[in-house]
Amino acid sequence: MTFMPRAHVQTRNIVANWQALDALHPGASTAAVVKADAYGLGAVRVARALRAAGCDTFFVAYPEEGAALRKAVGRAARIFVLNGPQRGQLPLYRDAGLTAVLSSEAQVKLWSGAPKGTCALHFDTGMNRLGLPAALAETESVALNRMQPVLIMSHLACADEPAHKMNAAQRAAFNAITDAFPDTPGSLANSAGCYLGKGYAYDLTRPGIALYGGSHPPASLPLKPAVILDAPIISIFTGRKGRTVGYGATHTLEEDRLLATCAIGYADGLPRSGAGQLRAWIDGQPCPVVGRISMDLVTIDLTGAGRNAKPGTRVEFLGENAKLEEQAALCGTLGYELLTGLGPRVERVYLT
To answer: Three-state DSSP class for 46?
Structure first.
């Protein structure tokens, strides 16, 4: 029996989420964003499962990620590299058959002299992070079309707020850009963008966090959890009234409570900001985290919920009950950070 934290990665649920998102927009294709090692869950295993289900387009951030992924998904799949090429990386793009996403004039110039390869053009429509100036779609349309891009794309800044006026503004700006590339597919929607309606789908959607059970989908689209994060109880004891729990003595017990210490902490990705906020779960019952979260340990309150628990009982911190975005909100963060923050000593177990 392992006494370390464990992440049960449910690739079948990731596939089901991709299929549900794909069904939202029948006229468009659905890619899979698997950057940052598939948001901490293992890009090779996740991409293989998605590829077997019919996904043929993947997005990563770095060419090194793309090269590793290529071995997993085969030569027929498309792999886009979002951060684009830098000098010295061109052979890697060529050898791994990667598609460079060009988002600056410097990258366009670099790629124009590169060996034969495919590229996408990323335009800024309001995010002000990465992207070619929108005006270039008009002033340099001939030269840019000559590069034969396989995709025109942009990125929504406020898609998780459906009523935000910036969504419509970015869509209008993107429409003007795609008009300059009438023969090239377009892509605007990230995970939250998939929920804004068919006018945002264009030819290709790019869900990321939604594949892994995150984001805030409409009630008609219940996504499945991609991971169950659990950790074993090391000790169970009675905390006496008036005593304090954890570093800094920040939590004082107002009555006798049944407490347990679990083998998981902020070194494993359980945010320290979740102290006194997070809930662990045993047998479908919540057990509040009490006191500060330590590097390797966390204390939970079993009173009324874990009378049958014993050392070795595994406690759920993410999963069916401990929902990703709800746990993230209790820590003052997002599901993205919880998943990508899972530490290297968290054992990944894949359930297909």
So the answer is: helix
Residue 1's pLDDT band (cuts 50, 70, 90): low
Contact 342, 1 (CB under 8 A): no
Instruction: Tell the residue number behind the tokens 């449910």, with chain if given.
Output: 10
Structure tokens at 67: 């090269």
Nearest one of 271, 351, 278 to 316, comparing CA atoms:
278
Clarify whether 202 is annotated catalytic.
no
Quickly count: other Cβ atoms within 10 Å of residue 282's Cβ. 22
Overall fold of domain 11-212: TIM Barrel (3.20.20)
Q: What is the pLDDT of residues 74-88, one digit of tens each?
A: 999 999 999 999 999
- Residue spans of the domains in the chain: they are 11-212, 227-351
Q: Residues 123-179: pLDDT tens digits?
A: 999 999 999 999 999 999 999 999 999 999 999 999 999 999 999 999 999 999 999
Per-residue pLDDT, 114:
78
| Beta pairing, strands 186-187 & 204-205 | unpaired
Q: In the chain, where does DSSP find H-type helix?
A: 11-24, 35-40, 43-53, 63-73, 90-96, 105-112, 136-139, 141-146, 165-179, 324-330, 335-340
Structural contact between residues 159 and 193, judged by C-beta atoms closer than 8 angstroms: yes
Active-site entry in 35, 39, 93, 202 = 35
The listed CATH number (3.40.640.10, 3.40.50.2000, 3.10.180.10, 2.40.37.10) that belongs to domain 227-351: 2.40.37.10
> What's the pTM value of the predicted model, to 2 decimals?
0.96
- What values do phi and psi take at 220, rounded to 5? -75, -5
Strand partners, 260: 236, 300
Q: Is 35 a catalytic residue?
A: yes
Q: Where are the alpha helices (DSSP H) in 57-104?
A: 63-73, 90-96
Q: Sorting pLDDT into bands at 50, 70 and 90, what band is 352?
A: confident
Q: Which of 71, 198, 241, 247 is catalytic?
A: 247
